[in-house]
Amino acid sequence: MTTKEKLSALREKMQANHIDAFIVYSADPHMSEYLPVEWQERSWLSGFTGSAGFVVVTRDHAALWTDGRYFVQAAQELKDSGIELMKDGVEGTPNYIDWIVSQISKGGRVAVNALATSHVNWKEIIGRLEAKGIDLVDLPLLDEIWTERGIPSQNPVFVHPDSRAGKTAAEKLADIRQKMNEKGATVHVISSLDDVAWTLNLRGSDVECNPVFLAYLVLTLDDAVLFTDLEKLDVNARKQLDTAFVKMKPYDEFYPYLASLKHEKILVAPNSNQSIYRTLEENNEVLVAPVPGNLMKAVKNDTELEGFRKVMVRDGVAMVKFLYWLTHSAGKEAMDEYSIGEKLESFRAQGENFVGVSFNSIVGYQENGAVVHYSAKKETAKKVTGFGSILVDSGAQYLEGTTDITRTFPLGEVTDEFKHDSTLVLKGMIDLAMAKFPKGTKGFHLDALARLPLWLEGKDYAHGTGHGVGSFMNVHEGPQNIRKDMNPTELVPGMVISDEPGFYVEGKYGIRHENLITVKEWKTTESGTFYQFETLTLCPFFKSIIVTELLSEEEIGWLNAYHKTVEEKLSPYLEGAVKEWFLEMVQPL
Fold first, then answer.
1. pLDDT tens per residue, range 245-263
2. How far apart are CA 209 and CA 33, in angstroms?
3. What is the pTM of this model?
4. CB-based contact 538:569 (threshold 8 Å)
5. Going by C-beta distance under 8 Å and a sequence separation of 6 or more, which residues neighbour residue 464?
6. CA-CA distance, 241 to 118, in Å (whole number)?
7. Environment class of 352 (CB within 10 Å of its CB; exposed 0-12, middle 13-18, buried 19+)
8. How confident is the model at residue 159 (pLDDT cuts 50, 70, 90)?
């Protein structure tokens, strides 16, 4: 079916059920960012494959809202679909609820799938719609149209050993129960897949690139129950769960179990799906608050940080070999954006304990670099030659940690304009990496440091500067981030975050430079405790596109010191022509 045919089929179902608007979020019952194939409803309906965005379909119109990372990609993928692109965050773009209200008369009905709608979204929507005399109902209409969804993965669940986790599952459960006590909760429902996996020191592969498995976890002050496909638990996983006194029940028994709870005070995250909340609210007191384990997971312990440092060496060696190959082969052998991504994965696969990529590589050649989260398709990938620039944003999952790195570099002659902009982006990345800041600082306080070199020339980028990164876990992890939005989460020692400013000129080029950094203590003064960042990523930058005159002495000093560290860490694992080229790359400016 084409997108227009799918919209037509959906509208028939809407007509039959007296529905005036239907909202399709990019979500599964666990409110995941990256979805199992069987829950990619928005992608299936619209043809838009980005990780963020949602569609609203009325009887006569359809629109998709997404953020600045995907404006170019969405415009391309929505072409001739009958779905209008709404650029979220851009002045003049209507809020989707306001847009719905403008399309529907009093007495109308809006439907969603409550399993794929967060409680916080449901609460916001219903409050706004009821004020206009419009009803909100739970009606999963796509179930009747998308009849070939596929089935959940049967991949095994395996143990993430304490020697890599740094803390046992029993210890984590005890820590979470302490927070439950503080909040007065008698039951806690954990529905996000990465929180379940982290808490129990288990990993899986039910979601592409993310080492998680489909499951729910329910804690009481004395008990714990895991709901998952029991066939996927191997002997070691079952033994670990037994050791932590975690009971095991089939995935499908989760909602009946919730329905059996009575007169409890139940802690539920705001982004839990609405079906969970609705099942609990009639017979219990529901405490809506952030999941305690989410922040615990974000603050990496010493064992996890050491794991990051180990895999950065492995990943850095793979990146250097890849960069040497690409810069010396482009224009001499046939390649395209897709095959380059495959080649990069092959270099990483040579590393110890490599599991897979942490996301599908973004390889944007020339003007495709301006598509922030560009995804090259095998059939349509652009041919790459020894000319112009290329942006490569990639990462890997290793048993000890997760990586995410971007390098933008020349494959041939580039313009002075490109070099100028590339240097501005690099300045921003360095300035954030050098930051010193007081305890209590939040990510949005630091965001401007990375943007200022661009702002001074009236330039900016339409995405966040940094996101949290998991420890052999999801490459995008909260609750912390560094972006313009006012996230109340403080940056604390142990958090791992990306540092990735960018600049994009549609139709010409895209530039992004990215390292991973971790928060650590700096010093305590009369003004209080101050923190700084430690840069974790190990990979050289291309000096040939740096306009040295634009860098301050301090920035040059940081870059030279960084390249010295990269040399010390990586050179023992390189040899021959690759090592000679690498040693030239890391020479001081």
1. 999 999 999 999 999 999 9
2. 12
3. 0.93
4. yes
5. 447, 481, 482, 483, 484, 485
6. 29
7. exposed
8. very high
